[in-house]
Design brief:
Length: 405
């Protein structure tokens, strides 16, 4: 079993089953002999086995959160259809084109076959399965409702991933356009402006101040631009390096982001949506509130909200009501607090949290769409000023000369 957990070589096979029907498929094993043994155990007589050749341009083999979300949904669907857990892993694993994901699934399958619970098996891979995922799976196994809990996990993962993609899409578009604008401007300054500069030297007259400024900028970029590029590159590297390793910096950035006009409210709504969705999922699984809040804190996606939820956890642990603890953080709108209060009073905290999550997820969608509509004309204006300004600066002397003539 230990060997199966570490290998990931895909083999394509063909054969006949117990009824004599031709079957084919794909298996992961250390060698061809291991594939034959596994197929015979399943009642398949192999007629052809060969290694699968890696596909060209297959892309990154990293495991993404989207892969985990799809895996959760597939596994939930298999179990709901009555397929045994180990066989479900076999089917889902062989269906993945991502070799890294195949290796992960087969590793979990080997642990389960070796006697580990599913929660114990996935807990060995904290990089891909967080405490929330493990706790929910453990609760499902203990309650005998693993397929139900996996369905909730899949829904939770899909909705949180949808929010992340929506926000990334809204921020990626303007960033990409601004990068293109920067590249085009640099090309004009390095290759186009010098041609006009040589032309203007023959005029024998003073150039307009705007044109002179653009030419000076072009000279600076051509002679000292590499220093500027190195400084910008070093600054970007340092930013991401310390952002990844310094919690204090991430807290400063998250706190600052929440105060940025237009962007701040979207990030706040996204954090509230993740908070409510995670709380609903955890509470519906029967996880105690104090324990649930610890997992909820890490799922908010913002350190300001993470610290606030951890403070709430400490207050709830001492007997404080969740509603009052939320009010004390001053991070949640009154409507959210009142809906949570109704959920506490009526004993339907999971349902009310789900309603809050639905509302804010839709609100984030609308806000992002509005942001995209707002940014498009602004970006076009920036492009027009940058590129158009350079063109006007180069043609000003020509216009001036024409008016004199």
């Amino acid at each position: 079993m230990a060997e199966s957990a570490t290998v990931s070589t895909p083999f394509l096979w063909e054969g006949t089953d117990r009824k004599g029907a031709k079957v084919k498929g794909k298996s992961l094993a250390s060698n061809e002999a291991a594939v034959r043994t596994e197929l015979r155990r399943q009642g398949v007589v192999p007629t052809r086995i060969r290694k699968q050749r890696p596909k060209l341009f297959s892309g990154s083999q990293k495991i993404t959160t989207g892969d985990i979300a799809i895996f959760s949904r597939q596994l939930a669907t298999m179990l709901a259809a009555g397929i045994p857990l180990v066989q479900s892993f076999e089917i889902v694993g062989n269906g993945h084109e991502n070799a890294a994901m195949q290796k992960l699934i087969l590793s979990i399958k080997a642990d389960v076959e070796g006697g580990s619970s599913l929660a114990e098996a996935i807990a060995k891979h904290p990089l891909y399965f967080d405490d929330l995922f493990v706790n929910l799976v453990e609760a499902g196994e203990q309650a005998g409702a693993l397929e139900t809990l996996l369905d909730k996990i899949a829904t939770y993962k899909e909705k949180t991933e949808a929010i992340k993609k929506k926000i990334k899409k809204a921020l990626t578009y303007p960033a990409a356009v601004l990068v293109v604008a920067f590249v085009v401007t640099t090309i004009l300054l390095i290759f186009v402006i010098p041609a006009f500069e040589d032309l203007f030297k023959g005029f024998g007259a003073d150039l307009p101040s705007f044109t002179r400024m653009v030419i000076d900028l072009s000279v600076f970029v051509r002679t000292q631009g590499y220093i500027l590029a190195l400084m910008i590159g070093a600054g970007i590297f340092a930013f991401f390096y310390f952002k990844k390793r310094s919690r204090a910096m991430r807290q400063f950035l998250d706190k600052t982001t929440l105060k940025v006009p237009v962007i701040g409210p979207i990030m706040q709504k996204a954090s509230i949506a993740r908070y409510a969705r995670t709380l609903s999922t955890m509470f519906a699984a029967g996880v105690p509130l104090v324990e649930a809040l610890e997992s909820v804190a890490g799922a908010t996606g913002n350190i300001v909200y993470e610290n606030g939820v951890l403070e709430m956890r400490d207050e709830v642990a001492t007997g404080q009501r969740l509603q009052q603890a939320m009010e004390n953080t001053e991070l949640f709108p009154n409507m959210v607090i009142q809906m949570i209060a109704v959920g506490e009073e009526s004993g339907s905290l999971d349902e009310m949290s789900a309603k809050v999550a639905d509302f804010y997820e839709e609100d984030v969608d609308n806000a992002v769409d509005n942001l995209s509509s707002l940014l498009e004309p602004m970006i076009m204006a920036i492009l027009g000023v940058l590129v158009g300004g350079l063109v006007v600066a180069m043609y000003l002397p020509i216009f001036k000369m024409g008016s004199v003539i």
